[in-house]
């Protein structure tokens, strides 16, 4: 059969389209409004209620907003940590400085990239090859993974948002990233040229140190430079005045935050159902990370039911849960609903659109990847003690869902959630033992690493 789209074939398509009046009606609707809004199921909206059986004691205030940046992983982490911290200080509202960790991630990530260029050059990877081309395509993004946030907190600590507030380039990071990407690609060529000439490690690292001095200047101009010490003053719920400091960010974390939330006691469990990646194995992604000498990004691969069970146990015990997912599938943004039944695509298009491929096949064929991190704060269970729905704290302000909170069905969790972070005490001992294995290295472009490559 002729593979070209002939005039006769196109005329047949046209005739088929206009022969069904439902297509004309759907066209009239979808040419005027968002096609996904046109597919919203009224029945699903009526059956969705933001009421839960188990909920963390108090949710964070104010609702955070990452604005035009890809800092969801930082915001989700700060939203999880602030809950026990606020309870400990007996305060009504609080935010850790997302800008503070964003600053240090940019600095550390640029240094990590430049050293990846050294490593790949020593491996004799060609600049036109897939690995180096992948690294150069997006040398500095806003996204990140759980192990990367642990690296930043353990090395640089935390600050209250009042002591290091947002800047324009925090909230709208594209232009700063554009500057950094150009310089990093320029520096990558310089480094590869030095190595090609046979220059030693000392010479190369001296050049990187000079390059990083410039990077620090650029980032500092755009984001501001955090103070070495700060003083945090606040009123508790009883209107009593308190003051902490002067104190370093690292000491602030270790003395005031770590006793109520120790990042080293939390573990990241993922679910990757691809046949090539067995459950009960630990994986990592080549060249993924943010701090030279820091902990690598480790993925303990388990069935999705284990992630769901650990999440429920944590929330029932009063601890919120950090998680990574693919947020834009089967998502009613304005209503804040994540549900496989929220859209009736066949009614409008005559064919289903999403969740046709299995979760594994979507990963294999490029139709699924982690794109967003958020926080679970509540769950509901049925009479069999099975999770039926979950409450989600997002970082997109108060305009979506129930004043910034989303609702997720269990079926959606199983299809589009890929990782959760919970305390070790909620994970079976045999699963914790998996972390002792030598990680299997996935390629740098593997979809398990995409959350770290999110930009604005």
Automatic annotation (TrEMBL):
Residues annotated as catalytic: 72, 372, 394
Reaction equations catalysed: Inactivates bleomycin B2 (a cytotoxic glycometallopeptide) by hydrolysis of a carboxyamide bond of beta-aminoalanine, but also shows general aminopeptidase activity. The specificity varies somewhat with source, but amino acid arylamides of Met, Leu and Ala are preferred
MF annotations from Gene Ontology: aminopeptidase activity; cysteine-type aminopeptidase activity; cysteine-type endopeptidase activity; cysteine-type peptidase activity
Name used for this protein in its record: Bleomycin hydrolase
CDD domains named among the record's database cross-references: Peptidase_C1B
Family label: Belongs to the peptidase C1 family.
GO cellular component, one term: cytoplasm
Pfam families registered for this protein in UniProt: Peptidase_C1_2
Swiss-Prot/TrEMBL GO biological process terms: homocysteine catabolic process; proteolysis; response to toxic substance
Species: Tribolium castaneum
Cell compartment(s), UniProt: Cytoplasm
Domain of life where this protein originates: Eukaryota
Keywords, ordered alphabetically: Cytoplasm, Hydrolase, Protease, Thiol protease
Coiled-coil residues: none
EC number: 3.4.22.40
